[in-house]
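As a warm-up, study this chain.
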Amino acid sequence: MEILEGFTDAPITPKFFNPIPSKGFRLIEACSPIPFNSVFPVTGGERVFMTALPRKEECSEEVAEKFHPLLLLPVGPEKEAINAYHQYFNEQEPLFQQFARLETDDDILGFAGKYGQLKRGVSADMTGENKVFFESLNLWKGEISLVRQFLKIWGDYEMDQNLEEYLMFRKECVYFMVHGEKNLAGKNITLPLVKTESKRDTVKRGMAKFIDKKMEEAPLTVSHGKEGKIFKSYLTPLSLQGAIWLQISQAFFGDGPKEAKVRRCVLTGDYFREKDGTGKRIMWLKKTGPLKGHYYHRDMMDRFYEQKRKRDKAAREGRSVKEGRKGATNFLIGFDDLQGTKKDAP
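Now compare it with the structure written out below.
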């Protein structure tokens, strides 16, 4: 009989498997009739129809009937996805950065087809009128907006700029404000006022509490798996939403696995793994100049200097380079603002 002795390390490695429909998702309008067996595969289900509605926590049936928001309808039987945190699956970009990049409805459908629903499960109410409840496109857009805004605040925190935009001071408290684009989503966090505290420290305190609130909204549990003769503990989110915010939390506080460490590229504001799937370093620390102490992605640095060379050449020839060109990388710093020496070379 095997006897387990001693204690394992506290779990810090995240693991998340989300069921995904074999044919992805498609968009339908709320209040559309759909066959029962298109969601729940049973014999004869094609003769029973249900009304598709947003999840109850998203909006009321009256609002759904008035505005007909778009819903994500799963297509095909479920299959098990690969671990959403797997570095070979995500390449260089962390899950939350991929999520923040989603722009169009097709982008969202593609991401959902790869990672599954934002919140698990499809529920039905067959007690009276047959109803089935799905995630809305607005739920996704609101969460994307919040992630983007949090990453923007994080970037401003690292650069120590624009911090007053996120704070509203009152006599006995201060509000930390995380408001997404186009008012899609937002949250005000109330913090005790500490008069001796810098704005930067107040913002960090607000970010920490905001992450805690999001983790309360999308909790996780602990699971266990055996590796060889040893049991290992994992942090296991209960939803894709939780998986995204757990990764943000571990990246922000630096308390995740070393092999999954994430850094912000000071040139673009995007987040990348410190090392790729082979263990090769792709994020480098700036050691000189005004940006000393910040990280940059080597490929982004190469693109930066390539664009600078094109601009310098155009200037010598009396031309200008068209801004906002399709496919061109957008940089957060000016082409004359980056200084460095050989010490900065990888």
